[in-house]
Sequence to fold (499 residues):
Amino acid sequence: MQELETPPTQNQDPPPGFNLFPNLKPPNKTLTFHQISVLFLTFLAYASFHASRKPPSIVKSVLSPQDDDNSHSGWAPFDDSHGPHRLGELDLAFLSAYSVGMYFSGHIGDQINLRVFLSVGMVGSGVFTVVFGLGYWWNVHVLGFFVVVQIVCGLFQSIGWPCVVAVMGNWFGKSKRGLIMGAWNSHTSVGNIVGSVVASSVLGFGWGWSFVLPGILILVVAALVYLFLVVCPEDIGLELMEKEVEMSVEGEALVNSEKMEMEGVGLDEGENFESKAAIGFLEAWRLPGVVQFAFCLFFSKLVAYTFLYWLPFYLRHTAVAGVHLSHKSAGILSTIFDVGGVGGGVLAGFISDKIEARAVTSVMFLILSIPALVCYRIYGSISMFANVLLMFVSGLLVNGPYSLITTAVAADLGTQSTITGNSRALATVTAIIDGTGSVGAALGPLLAGYISTRGWNSVFFMLVLSLSIAGLLLFQVVKSEIKGKQNEGRWLWLGTWLM
Fold:
């Protein structure tokens, strides 16, 4: 057949940086070296994405001071009583574009060079983050300018996640995937922390600097990614160990047992090739577990991003031990939530690997996060120690399932046996799950902007309700996981109780 003579391929020449440093090529460097390199570069790439997302939350209390005594402060058009609403609309503009772009970028990422595509997303994100900050020196007071910049920036930002997850999937097998990806996914919290510290530190020089520096940071990292990121082992003549091999961008490197299974059921060469074609968007939605986890992430990410975009504002306008924090102090203190998020991602990944049940782990964290948020709202203002402790615990529990679903769960669903190990579904499935989650991420900050004017208790009620719905959406998946363990002779007591 003609199609089999020229199958599509994504294998590319080594990155340009390898021509500058020939010693990076095999056999000078081992497979382990390149795995660590990919781990580091993708971590750095997505941390810089999140660092460039953080400035809007840091400058909110400067653009819209609200209850500050200095009535002439603020920045039009955000300096009146409708300021929080307009700031919420900015968040909506960015995150709506991000969620829409995610669906397209995931499918595109399955078709073209991921290194180049990721670099384009990073450069675009950096440029438009800087442009937003230039509005300070250009003395821009038109809401439309900021909305348009956020929309374009959101589209570029949507390129990042499907690309880095797909690259990671090419280099690492399922062994300890939850732990590895849980630790790797701390880039989200690390990026938030770096973005918060950088943006808060320069806030006194003018809010524009809070955007310019993170924007420059992602541009620098984009250069490193373009020069040195290797998309898959085959690009430099390497192959994973057979027991680790399960996916490549082309779906060419499959687990040996999977090949045997395909041969055993009589798949001919043409059928085998068809399994390597990029999976369709609607077909990806029909994969087992995709819908449940996608909508669970919708509500889970709604909560996480409400904290991401509004926690500094909340801290600035809520007295801790009777004292209101400064803009800078509120921004830096908010990083405690992300520090907890680092631990939550690692812990959720570790637990899910140990018990071999992603949904059960996610629901455990979701259930525990509800009393954690209630306690933070009620007791967080008593003292600084109570605020820090409860914020840390809340970050750990809220970010645990969010981290697990966007990494290990997405990778599991994108490489499950029902699609015969076809990793060209990976970026598409990842984009569907995180894109759906990003719709919730867009809705949460917008609602918070409106609801916060009626009192923060209402905002926390919205967050608790969202976490409850997220847990309920996984109920059937949890039952299936427990039933599977029951059939294996494990968790008998829990299976009997639920069934």
About this structure: Residues 1-10, 242-276 have pLDDT under 50 and may be disordered.
